[in-house]
């Protein structure tokens, strides 16, 4: 009896020591077959009672009858749901630990025009927040700089890595710019402060105009004697290797900013935030602009707005034929970004099907970020970024992630919150004995 | 030529989505719904509920339908209205008397703003009542107000009488940890100091009470012997005599334990710890003391004192016998409070009915109004919500929100209100254009947006000062 007890004790200790902190596992060494699940492809399709085979980090086969190689690990998911791993764009994940503690904050530099500062190398793979976000099904994120007029360059990472180098999924995917508002508050804290015109606006727009014109001219020559680091970083905007992410909310600002950047021969423009995007759908459609919306779990912009604002904005944009993705930006990011699946749930509750809403946190996001050949849906040849949930992933009532795979590696779903839960559950259990 | 004066209709309140007529209580029969009673009957299907004279008057199958407004509840769910234990909406001009550490004399009830559009937004989320709290700038903040969200009524009509609470606070906000380098002077600046502020306040209150007792029982009363009236100490004496109850903003286990001991020393109990994100660490002590816990669902990590916060907090506290509610402290979450409650199902396997109680019955219990509110029981106030789906599901919408038998939110008439708003807006714009074209004086529009308050906002303190932005 004592021997069994010791064995169990040692085994438990082993499990807990493995989970502290969640350690990335080796490269997928064995083929794996997930069988008998409801597969949500991510592009609208569902396969009832389907199976998915992946090996060497790639999806090999999906369907009703999938044969697996003899040495494959087989997991029967018993009718549970299989989804593509969710993607969280425009986030501070890994760039801040405790927002109130300045020394942990690395997403905002002090200079106005800083396209060359890069989030990738400041990304902390060991943030305690990352495992809590994985636990809800998010496997890929876009750590993004903020602040200033041009905030910097983002990258896309997968959330299971020892260091930023291993985490890199798409390096330097794009540059972020905050278009100046037409209006501002007169006094910041005061309740009675009026909204007045932003007097600095024209000045800033002129600076943006000048900067981009010079950057465009700079990019025409491949080798400069005098290197300008900022313009070097901006080359990609003109040859299409980098997106320009334009952060703008007010209807007129959206139109004005996109027109300005188009005139500078920027190849790929994406609208970020876009609180008023639903008011300018014709313009967005004409100019082929995709939108990554800020968190839907916010109050309506104007006091006279419909009460189901902003919940129905994804449906409004979708109906107008615009490619829409959801982000948790401007919400309680990054710790709140684990609620990304529920933003999709809210979108689905207001005018979209569940599969349409799911696309807005998977395939649509991948398309906009330029990683759709690698991920965003469960299709042959793509990376095996997969999650299994007991129930509907979009509803907090039923979301419960039991398995998750990043590039085919089974990742641990333990996190700081769960550890503390276990620690104190056990304390109270023991007290009862 | 006489120009016909055309005046817009008065709506209650006089803001977007106001009512043409103030909602009146009606006799309403909700038929054939799934009723979440919050009583021992639990969740019962295909059941009718009759509301009469502002109360729940009958619950059963096939209640007679004469002289009632019938609402078909087939396929829908009826719950008690959602209540928010921790709210800062409908408050004008500031939420924190952030000047001194003890400001027990101030009253949120004095500054209720019934025109706040967030009242209407929360009605659309199934909320029927909110405790409006002072912020968390001070150890001892101010007396709270408890309102039913009767959109269109005056502040006085909204306030529920005889709900006597006061806001206390512990932790980083009261010690001004995150207010910048200028704010390092006011005592307390550490958790050590907080205990002394609390102890000192109640010591003074006890002395004050004794002073007045002596004076009142004195046979030879003269005006020169009368003690000084102190509104701040009056409020604290109410707490000592269990006439006023404390809801205390709190995070870490050390300070929670500290305050329970201070209360026990002075012979009273802390009614509710709010936020209480480390409550799970000492849920056993909380249960023993008799304190309730009103928690966020899943916030953590944004400041140091919430680094050990876990979304399993509510579930763990409840397991240990603490009365738990889920609150918002945020106008955005408050309109999705049913979803926040549903998170306890995911984080900790709380049952659906228990999760719903965390935003209904348990709030009523914590506020000592569970004799009148909180469950669908004959005799209780008719504050109910009809949902399109399971109320804990993200897909559910509130179709009707009823307070004291009057319909304050209706998904269908909301549609009508939108059209009315649009029409009225156009009418006013046309009028302005006409006035301008006929040569009248114009002025630039000035928008004054509403401020959304949070616990830590100290707008008025910094208004003319040199600290703050």
Write the layout of secondary structure elements.
The complex is a heterodimer of chains A (433) and B (469).
Chain A: H1 2-18, E1 32-40, E2 46-55, E3 58-63, E4 73-76, E5 81-84, E6 86-91, H2 129-134, E7 138-143, E8 150-158, H3 164-167, E9 168-178, E10 183-185, E11 195-197, H4 201-219, H5 229-239, E12 243-248, H6 251-262, E13 269-273, H7 281-286, E14 290-293, H8 313-319, E15 324-326, H9 340-349, H10 354-359, H11 363-369, E16 386-389, E17 401-406, E18 409-410, H12 416-432
Parallel strand pairs in A: 1-4, 1-5, 6-7, 9-12, 12-13, 13-14, 14-15
Antiparallel strand pairs in A: 1-2, 2-3, 5-16, 7-8, 8-9, 10-11, 16-17, 17-18
Helix pairs in contact in A: 4-5
Chain B: E1 28-36, E2 43-52, E3 55-60, E4 69-72, E5 77-80, E6 82-87, H1 117-123, E7 127-132, E8 140-143, E9 145-148, H2 155-158, E10 165-169, H3 191-217, H4 231-240, E11 245-250, H5 253-265, E12 272-275, H6 283-289, E13 292-295, H7 313-319, E14 324-326, H8 331-334, H9 337-346, H10 352-357, H11 361-366, E15 384-387, E16 398-403, E17 406-410, H12 411-437, H13 459-462
Parallel strand pairs in B: 1-4, 1-5, 6-7, 10-11, 11-12, 12-13, 13-14
Antiparallel strand pairs in B: 1-2, 2-3, 5-15, 7-9, 8-10, 15-16, 16-17
Describe the structure.
The complex is a heterodimer of chains A (433) and B (469). Chain A contains twelve helices and 18 strands. With 433 residues, chain A is α/β, with parallel strands linked by helices. Chain A has two domains: 115 residues, Urease, subunit C, domain 1 (Roll); 282 residues, Alpha-Beta Barrel (TIM Barrel), CATH 3.20.20. In chain A, strands 1, 2, 3, 4, 5, 16, 17 and 18 form an eight-stranded mixed β-sheet that branches. The longest helix of chain A is centred in the middle third of the chain and has 19 residues. Chain A is globular and about 65 Å long. The two termini of chain A are 19 Å apart. The relative contact order of chain A is 0.16. About 3% of the residues of chain A have low confidence. Chain B is an alpha/beta fold. Chain B has two domains: 146 residues, Urease, subunit C, domain 1 (Roll); 288 residues, Alpha-Beta Barrel (TIM Barrel). Chain B is built from 13 helices and 17 strands. In chain B, strands 1, 2, 3, 4, 5, 15, 16 and 17 form an eight-stranded mixed β-sheet that branches. Chain B has a six-stranded mixed β-sheet with strand order 8-10-11-12-13-14. A three-stranded mixed β-sheet of chain B has the order 6-7-9. In chain B, helix 3 runs parallel beside helix 5. Chain B is globular, with a radius of gyration of 24 Å. The C terminus of chain B is likely disordered. At the A-B interface, helix 9 and helix 12 of A face helix 1, helix 8, helix 9 and helix 12 of B.
């Amino acid at each position: 009896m004592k021997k069994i007890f010791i064995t169990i004790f040692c085994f438990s200790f082993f499990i807990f020591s493995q989970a502290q902190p969640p350690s990335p596992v080796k490269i997928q060494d064995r083929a794996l077959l997930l069988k008998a699940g409801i597969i949500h492809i991510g592009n609208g399709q569902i396969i009832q009672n389907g199976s998915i085979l992946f090996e060497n980090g790639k999806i090999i086969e999906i369907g009703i009858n999938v044969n697996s190689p003899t040495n494959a690990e087989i997991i029967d998911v018993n009718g549970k749901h299989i989804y593509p791993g969710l993607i969280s764009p425009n986030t501070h994940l890994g760039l801040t630990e405790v927002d109130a503690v300045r020394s942990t904050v690395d997403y905002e530099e002090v200079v106005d025009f800083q396209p060359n500062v890069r989030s990738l190398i400041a990304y902390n793979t060991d943030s305690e927040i990352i495992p809590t976000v994985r636990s809800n099904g998010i496997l890929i994120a876009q750590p993004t700089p903020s602040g200033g007029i041009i905030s910097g360059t983002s990258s896309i990472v997968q959330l299971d890595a020892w260091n930023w180098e291993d985490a890199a999924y798409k390096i330097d995917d794009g540059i972020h710019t905050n278009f100046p508002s037409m209006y501002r508050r007169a006094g910041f804290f005061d309740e009675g402060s009026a909204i007045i015109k932003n007097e600095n606006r024209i000045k800033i727009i002129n600076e943006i105009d000048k900067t981009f014109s010079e950057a465009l001219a700079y990019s025409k020559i491949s080798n400069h004697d005098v290197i300008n680091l900022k313009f070097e970083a901006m080359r990609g905007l003109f040859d299409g290797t980098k997106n320009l992410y334009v952060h703008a909310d007010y209807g007129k600002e959206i139109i004005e900013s996109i027109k300005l950047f188009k005139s500078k021969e920027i190849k790929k423009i994406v609208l970020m935030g876009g609180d008023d995007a639903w008011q300018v759908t014709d313009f967005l459609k004409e100019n082929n602009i995709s939108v990554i919306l800020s968190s839907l779990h916010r109050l309506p912009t104007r006091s006279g707005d419909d009460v189901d604002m902003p919940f129905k904005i994804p449906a409004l944009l979708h109906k107008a034929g615009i490619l829409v993705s959801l982000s948790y930006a401007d919400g309680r990011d990054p710790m709140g970004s684990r609620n990304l699946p529920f933003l999709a749930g809210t979108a689905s509750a207001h005018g979209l099907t569940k599969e349409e809403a799911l696309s807005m946190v998977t395939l649509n996001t991948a398309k906009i970020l330029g990683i759709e050949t690698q991920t965003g849906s469960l299709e042959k040849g793509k990376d095996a970024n997969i999650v299994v949930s007991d129930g509907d992933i979009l509803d907090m009532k039923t979301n419960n992630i039991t398995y998750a795979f990043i590039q085919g590696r089974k990742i641990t779903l333990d996190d700081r919150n769960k550890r503390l839960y276990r620690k104190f559950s056990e304390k109270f259990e023991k007290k009862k004995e | 030529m006489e120009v016909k004066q055309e005046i817009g209709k008065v709506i209650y309140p006089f803001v977007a989505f106001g009512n043409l007529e103030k909602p009146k209580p009606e006799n309403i029969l909700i038929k054939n719904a799934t009723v979440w009673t919050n009583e021992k009957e639990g969740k019962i299907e295909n059941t009718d509920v009759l509301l009469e004279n502002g109360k729940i008057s009958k619950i059963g199958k096939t209640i007679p339908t004469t002289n009632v407004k019938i609402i078909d509840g087939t396929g829908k769910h009826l719950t008690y209205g959602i209540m928010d234990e921790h709210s800062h909406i409908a408050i004008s001009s500031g939420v924190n008397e952030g000047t001194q550490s003890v400001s027990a004399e101030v009253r949120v009830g004095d500054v209720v703003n019934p025109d706040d559009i967030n009242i209407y937004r929360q009605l659309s989320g199934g909320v029927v009542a909110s405790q409006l709290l002072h912020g968390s700038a001070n150890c001892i903040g101010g007396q709270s107000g408890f309102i039913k969200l009767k959109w269109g009524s005056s502040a006085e009509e909204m306030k529920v009488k005889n709900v006597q609470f006061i806001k206390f606070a512990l932790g980083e906000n009261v010690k001004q940890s995150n207010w910048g380098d200028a704010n390092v002077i006011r005592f307390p600046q550490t958790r050590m100091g907080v205990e002394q502020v609390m102890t000192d306040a109640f010591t003074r209150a006890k002395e004050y009470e004794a002073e007045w007792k002596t004076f009142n029982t004195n046979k030879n009363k003269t005006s020169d012997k009368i003690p000084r009236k102190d509104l701040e100490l009056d409020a604290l004496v109410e707490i000592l005599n269990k006439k006023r109850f404390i809801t205390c903003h709190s995070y870490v286990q050390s300070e929670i334990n500290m305050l329970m001991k201070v209360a026990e020393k002075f012979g009273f109990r802390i009614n509710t710890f709010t936020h209480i994100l480390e409550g799970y660490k000492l849920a056993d002590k909380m249960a023993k003391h008799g304190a309730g816990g009103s928690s966020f669902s899943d916030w953590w990590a944004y400041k140091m004192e919430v680094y050990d916060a876990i979304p399993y907090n509510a579930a763990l506290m409840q397991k240990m016998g603490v009365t738990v509610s889920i609150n918002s402290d945020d106008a955005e979450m408050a309109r999705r409070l049913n979803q926040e409650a549903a998170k306890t199902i995911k984080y900790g396997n709380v049952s659906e009915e228990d999760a719903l109680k965390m935003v209904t019955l348990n709030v009523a219990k914590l506020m000592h109004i569970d004799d009148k509110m909180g469950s669908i029981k004959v005799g209780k106030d008719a504050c109910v919500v009809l949902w399109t789906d399971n109320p804990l599901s993200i897909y559910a919408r509130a179709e009707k929100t009823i307070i004291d038998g009057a319909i304050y939110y209706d998904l269908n008439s909301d549609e009508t209100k939108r059209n009315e708003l649009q029409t009225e807006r156009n009418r006013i714009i046309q009028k302005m254009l006409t006035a301008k074209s006929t040569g009248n004086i114009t002025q630039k529009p000035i928008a004054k947006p509403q401020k959304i308050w949070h616990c830590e906002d100290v707008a008025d303190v910094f208004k003319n000062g040199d600290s703050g932005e």
